[in-house]
Design goal:
The complex is a heterodimer of chains A (326) and B (336).
Chain A lengths: L1 H27 L4 H9 L5 H10 L8 H13 L14 H36 L4 H14 L2 H12 L24 H36 L2 H8 L4 H30 L2 H6 L5 H10 L3 H29 L8
Chain B lengths: L4 E12 L6 E12 L3 E5 L6 H8 L7 E10 L7 E2 L5 H7 L4 E4 L13 H12 L5 H14 L16 H13 L5 E5 L7 H18 L2 E6 L2 H7 L2 E6 L2 E7 H6 L4 H7 L40 H5 L5 E3 L8 E2 L6 E4 L2
Parallel strand pairs in B: 3-8, 3-9, 6-7, 7-8
Antiparallel strand pairs in B: 1-2, 1-4, 4-5, 9-10, 10-12, 11-13
The chains are: A mainly alpha (326), B alpha/beta (336).
């Protein structure tokens, strides 16, 4: 328990550091948000409107950087991440919470499927070396070395088209209203199939390979021979003895990859114009939408930290050797 | 001691690898383990001792292959059968219930992620599925007590135990199904001398109480002289001499046994020079012709390089109870 508290403290500190950096970086960039917003409107704004923008962004008063910092924290605790330029005058938090479910659903589900599928195949390949699963390895390694976006483009080129079942872009058909009903959900799933497939193809081999290698390593351990000598069933030896030990490094890898779900697979979302967080970040960067970028970075940072914490807890549960107490 | 056999190894051959590249690690080994005895198996590293043990329980990891022979097991009741001919299911039932093994690596023999209790009871769950969880636990507790470990260590993980305790847990685990045969593959090499004695003493005591047979594998011949009834010496994958422990210690017939005996100090008796054996163990890939020991043998003479000596009863007064494979000792009757 003490160990866990230590870890949590550490993550709180890291989060503080990340948020502070997140606060300072945009302020170190030359120019101010109003000027960059003006650039978007190509100067077609009255001076009154410009003044009110300065008020709106809180840049009218000559507040010290310290009081700005304090205000920033106050706003954070109210969930206020400021206003987005590109979606002006929408709140950054609203823009992000619109995009977040798409990424969570697409990348989240595919990451989980990919982990379980890959780990399962890895166990098989490692346990039955030389079987057909082993033959799968070079193919999956090849597919994982193909760049994401190229795989995505290839998938669109080959599978999507005007008459195809697979839509080539977007998260849902235009004309539908996002809602949990029988029209929208199947349509959203249909739109997510192709991006999900490309993510799966390019990420599953990593899991297979690492799990297989760990299985092969663990299979040479003495306790595996002992387990065989004990006359346990092959299944029990494979799962409870070999896979249970081989799983440990993969679990921490999995927890880490959970953190990167939120960051989204940027390229996949760009290629498929998928309305997720990655695509949003891409748009924010091209439009120099600093508040939005800041907000997205914040969400990514926090999710990576939370994932790390989950990894720590998972390890604590799975590996008794990491538990410090006697 | 009854001379009833419990395990008969007949012409066992084990090779690593296939075809021309194969290395013959165990060659035509014949060995009989009798009920209730401790049979010591000694030899240098690479002499095939462990391979023999793994081979007779069919635990060889690839590329190890059994290329020939029989391992006849005589259960207390019922028909004798060849272990090498068992089906997968039959083999699983045979393992641990009839022949348990205590392995070399005390440190790594236990699964690090499961409690001691889990690892003790899963054997019972596999072999006696009708047993209730409660009685499984009670049995596991009983075994720990038997090897001198407090029952509250049931819930410990392996990393919380010392090396000696882990090896005692392994011994307790080996005896949990009351097997007829326990194979000990250098069970004490990872332990200090004091712990070695303690564990071996305990083992001998348990053997007298429970009446199982032991195949004790070690490179430490001095241990065997003390703890075993009979000793078999292996060299280059073959058994070169086999005799009662006392007889082997007093007058060994094979020069290799003599060399092994000369490489440790006697506890009592006059001081003598430690000699050791010159040279190194043979390369199993390119075995010398004839007797594989002849290049290192101080007593080698004409026939040694040409022909392989056969293991058989020597022409000595106690010849009927021992066997040797050496040209110095003409064989009266080869061992079948």
């Amino acid at each position: 328990m003490k160990y866990l508290l230590q870890r949590i403290l550490f993550y709180v500190f890291t989060a503080w550091a990340a948020i502070t950096i997140n606060f300072f970086i945009p302020r170190m960039i030359p120019g101010d948000p109003v000027k960059s917003l003006l650039a978007r409107f190509q100067g077609q704004m009255s001076s009154q409107a410009i003044d009110s923008l300065y008020v709106l962004f809180g840049l009218d008063k000559d507040a010290s950087i310290w009081s700005q910092y304090i205000d920033y924290w106050k706003q954070l605790f109210h969930g206020d991440l400021g206003l987005s330029f590109t979606a002006f005058p929408a709140q950054v938090s609203d823009v992000i919470s619109d995009a977040l479910p798409w990424t969570l659903a697409l990348v989240g589900i595919t990451t989980i499927i990919s982990f379980f599928l890959g780990t399962g195949l890895g166990v098989l390949a490692g346990w039955r070396r030389g079987s057909w699963v082993d033959g799968l390895l070079p193919a999956t390694t090849f597919l994982s070395s193909v760049p994401y976006f190229w795989l995505g483009l290839l998938a669109i080129f080959l599978l999507a088209g005007p008459d195809s079942f697979f839509p080539s872009s977007g998260g849902y058909s235009p004309g539908l209203v996002p809602a949990f009903d029988q029209y929208f959900i199947p349509d959203a799933i249909q739109h997510s199939l192709l991006p999900a497939l490309t993510i799966l193809i390019s990420s599953v081999s990593g899991w297979i390979l690492s799990m297989r290698n760990m299985m092969v390593t663990v299979a040479a351990e003495d306790y595996i021979t002992v387990a065989h000598a004990k006359g346990l069933s092959d299944r029990r030896v494979a799962l409870s003895y070999a896979a249970r030990n081989a799983l440990l490094p993969n679990v921490s890898g999995f927890a880490l990859s959970l953190g990167f779900i939120v960051g989204g697979t940027l390229l996949v979302e760009i290629v498929f114009s998928y309305p997720g967080l990655g695509f949003l970040l891409f748009r924010a960067v091209t439009a120099k939408d600093y508040p939005l970028m800041q907000g997205i970075f914040l969400v990514i940072t926090i999710s990576v930290l939370v994932a790390n914490l989950i990894a720590d807890i998972a390890y604590l549960l799975l590996d008794p050797r990491t538990r410090k107490e006697g | 001691m009854s001379a009833q056999p419990v395990l008969e190894i007949k012409n066992l051959n084990v090779e690593y690898g296939l075809g021309d590249q194969a290395v013959r690690a165990v060659r035509d080994v014949n060995l009989t383990l009798h009920r209730g005895e401790v049979l010591g198996l000694a030899g240098e590293s690479g002499s095939g001792k462990s391979t023999l043990a793994y081979g007779l329980t069919r635990l060889l990891a690839p590329p190890g292959v059994i290329t020939g022979g029989e391992v006849i097991y005589h259960p207390g009741q019922g028909e004798s059968y060849d272990v090498l001919g068992l089906s997968d299911k039959g083999l699983r039932d045979f393992r641990w219930a009839q022949t348990a093994i205590v392995f070399q690596g005390a440190m790594n023999s236990l699964n690090p992620v499961h409690k001691i209790s889990t690892q003790l009871t899963d054997v019972l769950a596999a072999h006696e599925p009708k047993m209730s969880a409660h009685s499984r636990n009670a049995r596991a507790r009983e075994m720990l007590k038997l090897v001198g470990i407090a029952a509250d260590r049931m819930d410990a993980y392996p990393h919380q135990l010392s090396g000696g305790m882990r090896q005692r847990v392994m011994i307790g685990m080996a005896l949990i199904l009351q097997p007829q045969v326990v194979i000990m593959d250098e069970p004490t090499t990872a332990l200090d001398v004091v712990m070695q004695r303690q564990i071996l003493g305990q083992l001998i005591e348990l053997r007298e109480r429970l009446g199982f047979s032991v195949i004790f594998i070690t490179h430490d011949l001095s241990l065997l002289v003390e703890f075993s009834n009979r000793i078999a010496i292996m060299y280059g994958g073959r058994i070169v001499e086999e005799a009662q422990a006392g007889a082997l210690y007093r007058d060994s017939l094979h020069p290799y046994s003599a060399g092994l005996l000369g490489s440790f100090p006697a506890l009592r008796g006059p001081r003598r020079e430690l000699t050791g054996i010159p040279g190194s163990p043979p390369d199993l890939k390119g075995m010398p012709s004839g007797c594989s020991f002849h290049p290192r043998c101080p007593k080698a003479f004409d026939p040694c390089a040409g022909n392989i000596p056969v293991l058989g009863n020597p022409d000595t007064p106690d010849g009927a109870t021992r066997s040797v494979a050496c040209w110095l000792h003409p064989v009266k009757e080869p061992v079948a």
